[in-house]
Amino acid sequence: MLRQRTLKTLTKAVGVGLHSGQRVELTLRPAQPDTGIVFRRVDLSIPVEIPVSVQAVTDTRLASTISNGGAKVLTVEHLMSACAGLAIDNLYVDITAEEVPILDGSSSSFVFLLQSAGVVMQNAPRRFVRVTKPVEIREGEGDNVKWARLEPYHGYKLSFEIQFAHRVVDATGQRFEFDLGLGNYSRDIARARTFGFTKDVEMMRANGLSLGGGLDNAVVMDDYRVLNADGLRYDDELVKHKILDAMGDLYLLGKPLLASYSAFRSGHALNNKLLRALLAQPDAFETVTFEDEKKAPAGFAQVARAW
What we know:
Largest sheet: 7 strands, mixed
Mean pLDDT: 93
Distance between the termini: 26 Å
Oligomer: single chain
Radius of gyration: 18 Å
Structural class: alpha+beta
CATH topology of the domain at 3-125: Ribosomal Protein S5, domain 2
């Protein structure tokens, strides 16, 4: 049986929120089978639980935000991406402010935290959402078109293409494909950092956003070059970060996908609309388990490899 996974023990981190600039403490705790991933705002007078789901996503401007009533947690996608990459099904995320810490701007710090705590198998079958027919969301026309698509695939594969018409971005790889069952998430995707442009950072800060951002947790570019002293971590780091984000956004479904995801200039909003479109078509998906691990997609039975 392909089984669910959680952590062996708890692990903690302290950082600041990318947009809020607030100090935040994060504690990742093991959870029982079929719990899913649940964020807990433990700083509130009465702690509030926010289980991840497509419907829990209430804001997709600049990041993915989940809410339960008046309680919310911003910028959940990097941690969710690490959970998707390492196949973590059940987890409590205790947080002392309204935004997940940005740490180094990628998901590699979360991967380190999860692997340091240890991953254990649980006595319950891992449930997948298997896409059975194509679903697509498309917006805009001509030079402004963007789209995201899910198609049937025995595994989990993501391909993404970016297009910024910016000389620095144009000099990097702008399309990448990653197959979770065949590749190494920790090595190939997790280290890709969020990125931005100096003119946008200045505008966001003037509007009270990106207060915790800087060269230590983002790739920052002006009109001519990457400003980070150590340059890029991958030649195609920018498009790889879009795949990292997409994996986090799509894992807000609450279960791992068996599908091929492809996208052109997509983002948090379009990714969530794609999941809502999928759920709106009951004949486009089914929930499956694998009693015989040999029938699961290649690479899915193993615990995720380290660096």
